[in-house]
């Protein structure tokens, strides 16, 4: 409910004297100036334009600096709630400066489009681009030729509470240059009924060492975080953090994690934790896909889990060697109807699983591995309370020295483990565990089936395999090309 403004009380004599004295002496009152074009700023006609102080920009205005560089040490702010403007320049440096695009309790925040022929830089003391609004986050679009976000933050947060709007959009495109994200990017919400926003990062190469968060209240977006490096590499360092969690709907029911797609035409290196978890009972974990035309290396934890619901799917597609040394957790809970999320990791070259994969749940999910060759020294688990998953591995050769466990916790189950490779080596440290079956989908009828070319199976007598494996010969399996 809106309240009437109270009438001002009479000022006391001393205060009135101070005010009158200040007026007589001409003391200026700080107010934001207004600018609707580049010519409105007092920075001359040539060279870098330094913008200081506070400036209101009416909606729809275009600040075109005609190929000049701009250094923002002050504040540009939309003159109205939900307003928008465009800025065009050679390069833009936010040197402790701010761009503010405010929303309100009920209104979406504003939007800005920045078009640069040169680099975009954020540096100095707490630079920021803020498009937050309880009624919904705004839109921030920056296209440049190279970008370095060293300090500060960019945010397009939505609302909180019961009456709120979704998170907004952040699009950063470094063009033919490298995009370096060392600060904080946010397009999140905390309201029970609101969806998280979207963060889209593009560049010839991308390096992320800061925080990227597009979590949502009811759910994170299906396109929460998207990164595309063309034609170079995508590098996410150990200091970074990627989040697209669903934090839980009303009374804690059913949050939904968001989607992440990480792509590079070159190599992909993920050394930071990734979280697209679901919180709340009957939640569903998010979906993470990592694709690289070159190598793909995941050395940190990926969590697509939920406490009271189902896990989300995870996949890797690599044109070059792929390696997983972290923990991929897509497990679901043991509650009724909950399930794990599937895991698919495929490489056109070698694939190494030295970490752990977990797709367990009340009903476990399937795990598919393809590598040429394939090496498993870590742990793979797809154990279900009432139904375990299938494990399928194939490649020109396979060496297994770790644990693969598909045993159902209750009942007989038909958790099935199959490995098909022209040449196989099952080491003494291997533990291949599946259900007793029956498993009607294998040629041998056993729930552990090993298929190789004639005489190309090396099976250590010290390996633990249960049940007794079915051995199948297929001389049509492709061999590895000469190295």
Short description:
The protein has one helix and 51 strands.
What does this structure look like?
- This protein has 483 residues and is mainly beta.
- It has a domain at 33-203.
- It is 2% helix and 43% strand.
- The protein contains 1 helix and 51 strands.
- The strands form 4 sheets. It has a 30-stranded parallel sheet that branches. It has a 17-stranded parallel sheet, with no helix packed on it.
Query: Radius of gyration over alpha carbons?
Result: 28 Å
Describe the largest sheet.
30 strands, parallel
Which structural class should the secondary elements be placed in? Answer: mainly beta
**Helical amount:** under 10%
- Give a count of the beta strands, DSSP E runs of length 2 or more: 51
Number of helices: 1
State the distance separating the first and last CA atoms.
75 Å
Any low-confidence stretches, pLDDT <50, length ≥5? Answer: 1-30
Write down the overall mean pLDDT.
Answer: 89
Shape: elongated
């Amino acid at each position: 409910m809106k309240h009437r403004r109270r009438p001002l009380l009479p000022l006391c004599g001393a205060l009135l004297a101070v005010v009158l004295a200040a007026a007589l002496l001409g003391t200026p009152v700080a107010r934001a100036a207004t600018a609707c074009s580049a010519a409105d700023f007092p920075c001359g006609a040539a060279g870098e334009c330094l913008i200081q102080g506070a400036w209101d920009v009416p909606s729809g205005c275009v600040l075109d600096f005609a190929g000049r560089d701009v250094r923002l040490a002050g504040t540009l702010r939309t003159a109205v709630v939900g307003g928008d403007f465009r800025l065009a320049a050679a390069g833009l440096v936010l040197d402790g400066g701010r761009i503010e695009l405010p929303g309100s309790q009920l209104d979406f925040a504003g939007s800005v489009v920045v078009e640069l022929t040169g680099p975009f830089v954020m540096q100095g003391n707490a630079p920021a681009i803020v498009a937050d609004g309880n009624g919904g986050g705004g839109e921030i679009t920056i296209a440049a030729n190279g970008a370095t976000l060293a300090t500060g933050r960019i945010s397009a947060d939505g609302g909180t509470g019961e009456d709120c709007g979704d998170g907004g959009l952040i699009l950063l495109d470094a063009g033919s240059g490298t995009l370096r994200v060392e600060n904080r990017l946010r397009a999140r919400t905390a309201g029970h009924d609101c969806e998280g926003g979207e963060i889209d990062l593009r560049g010839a190469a991308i390096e992320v060492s800061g925080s990227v968060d597009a979590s949502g209240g009811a759910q994170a977006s299906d396109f929460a975080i998207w990164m595309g490096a063309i034609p170079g590499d995508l590098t996410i360092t150990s200091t970074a953090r990627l989040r697209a969690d669903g934090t839980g709907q009303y009374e804690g029911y059913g949050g939904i994690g968001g989607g992440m797609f990480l792509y590079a035409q070159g190599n992909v290196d993920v050394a930071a934790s990734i979280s697209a978890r679901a919180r709340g009972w009957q939640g569903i974990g998010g979906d993470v896909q990592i694709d690289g035309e070159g190598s793909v290396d995941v050395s940190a934890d990926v969590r697509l889990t939920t406490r009271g619901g189902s896990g989300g799917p995870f996949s890797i597609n690599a044109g070059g060697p792929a390696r997983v040394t972290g923990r991929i957790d897509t497990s679901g809970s043991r509650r009724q109807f909950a399930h794990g999320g599937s895991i698919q990791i495929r490489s056109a070259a070698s694939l190494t699983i030295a970490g752990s994969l977990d797709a367990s749940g009340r009903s476990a999910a399937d795990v598919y591995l393809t590598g040429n060759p394939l090496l498993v020294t870590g742990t793979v688990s797809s154990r279900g309370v009432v139904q375990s998953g299938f494990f399928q591995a194939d490649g020109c050769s396979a060496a297994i020295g770790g644990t693969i466990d598909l045993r159902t916790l209750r009942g007989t189950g038909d958790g099935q483990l199959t490995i098909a490779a022209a040449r196989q080596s099952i080491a003494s440290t291997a533990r291949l565990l599946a259900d007793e079956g029956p498993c009607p989908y294998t040629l041998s009828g056993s729930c552990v089936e090993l298929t190789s070319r004639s005489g190309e199976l090396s099976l250590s007598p010290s390996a633990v395999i249960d049940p007794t494996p079915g051995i199948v010969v297929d001389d049509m399996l492709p061999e590895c090309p000469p190295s």
